[in-house]
């Protein structure tokens, strides 16, 4: 029993001085800011969704799932990194290192696959309006269940011996052991990179390219007939999801590029600081989605409600003036 306790409390990082104390302090403060903003923003999205049932329809269930996965990723990733960078090493033991690597990997994959599902559903709505299917709550629930199970398979595999989790970069956070040069590791990392990044990316790019083409054709057709496009809501929702995807790629693409380079070029040497930069950039991804959600969805609805209220008040004042003017 005592040996087990010692094993859990043993620090993972054998070299806690890869950065000067000021460097770790900057990383700790940066992770603290990311944690605060992400927890506040994603919690606000979840609260608004549950308090306002008008927003709780099939497509917004995907937004809700995205906010939950982003929130959990922050609590398991950035929050822990705040503490470990403060101390300059991952001091929580090997088991907690594996736990952090698993959770950040899992919830990050869920976010990416949820964005993929959003793009696919939006593609069906815009490009196949006469299709036999209908976007329903049950359909969204089944899609999300498939996403979470698919990501669980890839995230849990290293815990069962197919590759592994370990410290990364400046040794204050944990992730997949990309630097392992074993057949077992390669047999996992290469299909993982394909199925968990390249394939979702391809689906997203395909869907949104066809969405833009279809919307352009539709607008041209409506305008040629002297009418006005009625697909403003679809365009706004498409812009919202596209902005989410763009911010996600901004955060995760450098990490994906560095990872595949490490796989394809075994002799490639990347300094710990340089290797940490994409990883810490990736940890900022959970703060963007709720901001985009509020800017493109909640604020327009709030603005419309304010305009409606002003019109009602103006109409009331007009009626009052008419009544007083009549003898």
Automatic annotation (TrEMBL):
<comment type="similarity">
    <text>Belongs to the G-protein coupled receptor 1 family.</text>
</comment>
<dbReference type="InterPro" id="IPR008365">
    <property type="entry name" value="Prostanoid_rcpt"/>
</dbReference>
<feature type="domain" description="G-protein coupled receptors family 1 profile">
    <location>
        <begin position="41"/>
        <end position="293"/>
    </location>
</feature>
<feature type="transmembrane region" description="Helical">
    <location>
        <begin position="24"/>
        <end position="50"/>
    </location>
</feature>
<dbReference type="Pfam" id="PF00001">
    <property type="entry name" value="7tm_1"/>
</dbReference>
<dbReference type="InterPro" id="IPR050125">
    <property type="entry name" value="GPCR_opsins"/>
</dbReference>
<feature type="transmembrane region" description="Helical">
    <location>
        <begin position="185"/>
        <end position="209"/>
    </location>
</feature>
<keyword id="KW-1133">Transmembrane helix</keyword>
<dbReference type="InterPro" id="IPR000276">
    <property type="entry name" value="GPCR_Rhodpsn"/>
</dbReference>
<dbReference type="InterPro" id="IPR017452">
    <property type="entry name" value="GPCR_Rhodpsn_7TM"/>
</dbReference>
<keyword id="KW-0812">Transmembrane</keyword>
<feature type="transmembrane region" description="Helical">
    <location>
        <begin position="144"/>
        <end position="165"/>
    </location>
</feature>
<keyword id="KW-0325">Glycoprotein</keyword>
<dbReference type="GO" id="GO:0004930">
    <property type="term" value="F:G protein-coupled receptor activity"/>
</dbReference>
<feature type="transmembrane region" description="Helical">
    <location>
        <begin position="237"/>
        <end position="266"/>
    </location>
</feature>
<feature type="transmembrane region" description="Helical">
    <location>
        <begin position="286"/>
        <end position="309"/>
    </location>
</feature>
<keyword id="KW-1003">Cell membrane</keyword>
<feature type="transmembrane region" description="Helical">
    <location>
        <begin position="104"/>
        <end position="123"/>
    </location>
</feature>
<keyword id="KW-0807">Transducer</keyword>
<protein>
    <recommendedName>
        <fullName>G-protein coupled receptors family 1 profile domain-containing protein</fullName>
    </recommendedName>
</protein>
<keyword id="KW-0472">Membrane</keyword>
<keyword id="KW-0675">Receptor</keyword>
<dbReference type="GO" id="GO:0005886">
    <property type="term" value="C:plasma membrane"/>
</dbReference>
<keyword id="KW-0297">G-protein coupled receptor</keyword>
<feature type="transmembrane region" description="Helical">
    <location>
        <begin position="62"/>
        <end position="84"/>
    </location>
</feature>
